[in-house]
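User: I'm new to structure prediction. If I give you an amino acid sequence, what do you actually give back? Let's try with this one:
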Amino acid sequence: MGLTWMELIILVLASFRVTRLLVYDTITDWIRKPFHKEVEQVNENGETEVFIEVKGKGLQRFVGELLSCHWCTGVWASALVYGTFLFFPILNPLWILFAISGGTALLFKLFD
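Assistant: Good question. You get back a string of structure tokens that encode the predicted 3D arrangement of the chain. For your 112 residues, that looks like this:
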């Protein structure tokens, strides 16, 4: 199926936003919590740094690794967004909303 440029931009921005939501946003900490452990360390400047340790073995570890990598999660988030775009068009307004949010996030970073 061919995409228009506008559809492609919407899908790219929506995939970006879903990926950020899953990997970084605090609102989805509950999704990552079974797979990640946060470890705090004080660096040589006396500042506290937080690191992620992946928990468990097998599937738990696999999902933990996936959720700690925006490149990895981005592939699956893109597949989810594109698949639902094709097969469940009733969700397309959701992807437009995520695309607007993703564009806004990029603009904030650009002008921050």
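You can read the tokens as a compact description of the fold. Here is one thing that stands out. The mean pLDDT is 93.
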